[in-house]
Design brief:
The chain is mostly helical. The protein has helices at residues 8-26, 31-57, 79-106, 112-131, 135-154, 160-190, 195-201, 209-225, 235-241, 244-270, 272-278, 281-301, 306-327, 330-361, 372-375, 377-391, 397-411, 415-440, 456-474, 477-492; strands at 60-63, 74-77. It is built from 20 helices and two strands.
């Protein structure tokens, strides 16, 4: 075991990458799920060990193949990306438990091994994006996660899933192309792709047009991948028509990883003084973020399909994260990182709960859910926990996110932003209450009086995720410690 410890950064990506084709070769039966679960569980343990190492002993640098950077590819782990690795791997593992019964219900039996192959590839891509210290490698892993996501969405039972996957493919390809053009311009000007090397060379070239263009291309590309308003058009259909397990996994991780990369490139490679001082990135991010907070919530209120409602809610929540980035002070960066983590927990819990309901009634339309709260009390409890966290009620993880965001706004004398944050949170109360009212205060649909809870393999991970929303609202030591350290590293530009 001791021989493996120095190679944990490489194993973080290599193990799920190798597991993906093994899932494909496993063929029909439960072997593909076992391989995928073991790989994800290993990734979670590895992420936890890396998080402990970085929090207590500082950043880790790993030279792939023994080639010293900047000539070789370097993996770098610090508290910022260790936090993201922990979120992605942890959510990926819990959702895989949920998958065992959910996939059997929603995906044709002959495609199960394809599903687990694509799921593991998507997990590999997201982990790789977070851990790599090479700018071009970010693009490579971005494409691995995106291409597998398109396939996962297309496996949905509805024909609209194909349209949603195609729309996501077009928008995702545009975003990836913008990002690649930006990286290419940086390479043209600096002659390197290593991020630590780029960090030292970019300041001398910040006034050049290619570097300015690179910054613009990278920012727009990542904003599209993160579904920042008004570049969010791919997101509602992708979340609504994907299989339940895919919605839970992608909603909790994919856009969050893109936001992390935006944080990393903005603060570490280009620097806060350049992005928010020399360039007007503050307003470029702040205005769409505020619009997203209200437009996403307004759209959610009028949705009849709850998965689509949660998708528009994600647009609003991404607005909160982007708003925190736009504030560009230590509290703002910390608030962004905390909400990336907490929102991942919220949406994973809520989408899994919708998966439990879909398993029993074959629908996530609000008019078909009447009275189910009394028949599926544990699922209803998970929805209430996730909904309260989404609102930012005290003693939930969502409250911690809003608290740090409000503090960040007040530290920058942006008191009017506090008013907007509170008002937009009140809108969330409307659509969360619509769901609670339908589930608990309406009579069951005729002929649907005997609905039972979903299988334990679906219910337990749902309750675990919902419980995480309560636990991290009460015990904030881990996320606060890691995000405070991460914010200081990012703002000082010392992480890479």
């Amino acid at each position: 075991m001791n021989a493996l410890i120095p190679h944990l950064p490489a194993l973080q990506v290599v193990v799920p990458l190798v597991a993906a084709p093994l899932c494909l070769l496993a063929g029909r039966g439960g072997l593909a799920w076992i391989i995928a679960f073991l790989a994800a569980a290993f990734a979670t343990v590895t992420a936890a060990l890396l998080a402990y190492q970085t929090l207590h002993h500082g950043p880790i640098s790993y030279e792939m193949g023994g080639w010293a950077p900047p000539w070789g590819i370097e993996y770098v782990v610090d508290t910022a990306n260790a936090f993201i690795l922990l979120l992605v791997a942890g959510i990926g593992t819990v959702v895989l438990i949920f998958c065992h019964a959910s996939v059997g219900k929603e995906i044709r039996a002959g495609n199960h091994h394809l599903f687990y192959c694509m799921y593991t590839l998507c997990l590999t891509g997201l982990l790789g994006i977070a851990i790599t210290g090479d700018a071009f490698n970010v693009f490579v892993f971005l494409e691995i996660s995106s291409l597998s996501s398109y396939a996962l969405i297309a496996l949905g039972g509805q024909r609209k899933a194909l349209t949603a996957a195609f729309q996501y493919l077009i928008m995702g390809t545009i975003g990836a192309t913008f990002f690649l053009i930006g990286v290419g311009l940086l390479y043209m000007m600096t002659g390197t792709l290593n991020m630590a090397d780029l960090q030292t060379r970019i300041p001398a070239l910040q006034d050049s047009r290619p570097v300015l263009a690179a910054f613009a291309f990278i920012t727009v590309g990542l904003a599209l991948k993160a579904a920042l308003f008004p570049l969010h058009l791919w997101l509602p259909n992708a979340y609504a028509f994907a299989p339940s397990a895919v919605s839970a996994f992608i909603a909790a991780t994919a856009t969050k990883v893109s936001l992390y990369v935006l944080l990393r490139f903005t603060f570490t490679l280009f620097g806060a003084e350049f992005a928010f001082g020399d360039l007007p990135l503050h307003w470029v991010l702040l205005v769409p973020a505020v619009i997203a907070m209200f437009a996403g919530s307004f759209s959610a209120i009028f949705q009849r399909d709850i998965k689509r409602m949660l998708a528009y809610s994600s647009v609003a929540q991404i607005g909160y994260i982007t708003l925190a980035i736009a504030i560009a002070n230590p509290a703002g960066v910390q608030a962004a990182m905390i909400h990336i983590f907490n929102h991942g927990l919220m949406k994973a819990a809520l989408f899994c709960a919708m998966g439990c309901i879909f398993y029993r009634i074959g629908s996530t339309r609000i008019d078909q859910m009447a009275g189910l709260g009394r028949q599926m009390p544990w699922t209803f409890a998970a929805i209430v926990a996730g909904g309260l966290s989404l609102l930012g009620v005290p003693l939930t993880a969502g409250f911690i996110s809003k608290w740090y965001l409000v503090q960040a706004a007040l530290q920058s004398d942006l008191w009017w932003l506090v008013v907007l944050i509170v008002l937009s949170s009140m809108l969330a109360l409307v659509y969360v209450w619509r769901l609670v009212e339908a589930l608990y205060f309406k009579d069951p649909v005729p002929g649907r009086e005997g609905v039972a809870e979903a299988p334990l393999s679906m219910l337990l991970p749902t309750l675990l995720l919902a419980g995480g929303n309560i636990y991290f609202g009460l015990d904030t030591r881990l996320p606060v410690a890691m995000t405070e350290n991460a914010a200081n590293l990012l703002l000082r530009g010392q992480a890479w």
